[in-house]
Structures are given as structure tokens and as C-alpha cells.
Specification:
The chain is mainly α. The chain has one domain (about 5-180): Four Helix Bundle (Hemerythrin (Met), subunit A) (Up-down Bundle), CATH 1.20.120. About 80% of the residues lie in helices and about 0% in strands. The chain contains 7 helices and no strands. Helix 2 runs antiparallel to helix 6 (about 130-135), helix 3 packs across helix 6 (about 130-135) and helix 4 runs parallel beside helix 7. The longest helix has about 40 residues, at about 145-180. It is globular.
Length: about 180
Amino acid sequence: MKIADILTTIRLLLIFPVVGGLANPDFISGLFLLILILIAIVTDYFDGVVARATRTTSARGQLFDHGTDFLFVTTGLASCAYSGVTNLYLPPLIVVAFSQYVLDSYYLFRQKELRMSALGRWNGIFYFSPLLIIPFARLGLGQDFKDILELLAALIAWILVITTILSIVDRSIAPLHKSKS
């Protein structure tokens, strides 16, 4: 197994404790949850770096990485919605956006690897924000601190609903631009 794939697998395995911790504040401490999410972010960053450095990049590895990110953020944000911190709309929208990303890359544009968009890439990065903010809110630094951070996580989730819809629309009209060129 390639080192990059091992890093991605670590992130995949972190889904279970992170989802439990986000859904139920009593499952694990805020500090431990924060550490697990930071490990996930670090492995997300370095799996691509390692794959490029070792010249082991592949379409399969890219799909494994992006699929793992999709599962991590979607289940994490669904857990946040379950716990009442964020809205219920974002996780299903991410499912639509990711499905569209995979389907139009491989079938519509007939590429052998995923075709990224700038907005989709930024959404993918910012989907981690509420997941990172919520453990900070649970560090026991006071109710006001917790309330402010949970409000921030909820606000970011609503902004991500809007940008995810925009990304879906952008991908939907992209074939029209392709056919005009």
C-alpha cells in the first residue's frame, strides 16, 4: 500500500470516532475530538503532497482521497446537524455536489480523473470549518465562548449551503460553456 493511501485510510478510520464525538458531546472530550479532526486535516493535506513527492499519484488515489473527504465531511456535518448545531440541508447538498462532481468528470466530460472546479475546491476546504469549530466550543472555556463558536459554525454552515448550491449550478451550466467553445 502506498504511503499516501495509508494517510487517506487513517482519515477514513477517523470518521467513526469523529462522527460519534460531533453527534454526542459526551462521547469523547472536546480536546480529543479536536485532535482527531486536526489529524484528519493533516492527513488530507499530506496525502497529496506525499503522492506527488513519491510520484505515486493516480486517478484511483485521487478518487480515494476525495471520496474519503466526502465521507468525512458529510457524515461529520450530518452529526453536527443531528446535535442541533448546524442545519440539516448541507449534508444532502454535499451528496448532490459530490455525485455531480464524480459523474460529470467521468461520464459527461469523459475524463480519466476527477475534474475540479475552483468553487468546489474551496467548498471542500471550508466544509471542514464547522467540524473544527465545534470541538473548540466544547473545550470548557465558558458558555459565552461556546455559544459564539456554535453560532459561528451554524453561520458558516448556512454560507456553505449557498456556495454549494452555486457550485451545483456552476457544474450544471459548465457543459453549455464547453459546447460553445
